[in-house]
């Protein structure tokens, strides 16, 4: 998702860590339809449709709904499942977990720790060191290259 078009989303911040409490009605007005469907209605994007699936740049993945930092690129791996996959979140508080028994399956849902948006699911079939696979819908992720972040950081210091 293009982060330059976040001006209509007052909850979006890459620095604010306070929990976001916005109603689904408000989210529906703020978010693009595809992001709303996955993030707030627990939808799933089609496999192999996210441009982030094959992205190998160094940087950080953020929640496209609220800007919360979720994953570092060095924890991303090619799982072959059709969605961006990671073996570890950026911090313990960046992700929250819930049991998901939908569609006759027993899974663990992962949500953004700041805005509680649905991101995807976590499975126990990932690589070392965690052996976890966070299977995440790319439409609910923003990505910022490390060099761009460093440039922005240096510009803000001046």
For the largest sheet, list the strands in their spatial order.
3-4-8-7-6-5
CATH class: Mainly Beta
Task: Name the beta content range.
Answer: 25-35%
DSSP summary: helix tally? 3
Q: Mind explaining what this structure looks like?
A:
- By secondary structure, the chain is α+β, with helices and mostly antiparallel strands.
- The chain has one domain: Peptide methionine sulfoxide reductase (Metal Binding Protein, Guanine Nucleotide Exchange Factor, Chain A), CATH 2.170.150.
- The chain is built from three helices and nine strands.
- The protein has helices at residues 24-30, 33-39, 146-157, and strands at residues 59-63, 69-72, 76-77, 85-86, 95-100, 107-112, 118-123, 133-136, 141-145.
- Mean pLDDT is 91; it is low at 1-5.
What attributes does this structure have?
Metal Binding Protein, Guanine Nucleotide Exchange Factor, Chain A, six-stranded antiparallel β-sheet, 158 residues, alpha+beta
Give a quick precis of the structure.
By secondary structure, the chain is an alpha+beta fold.
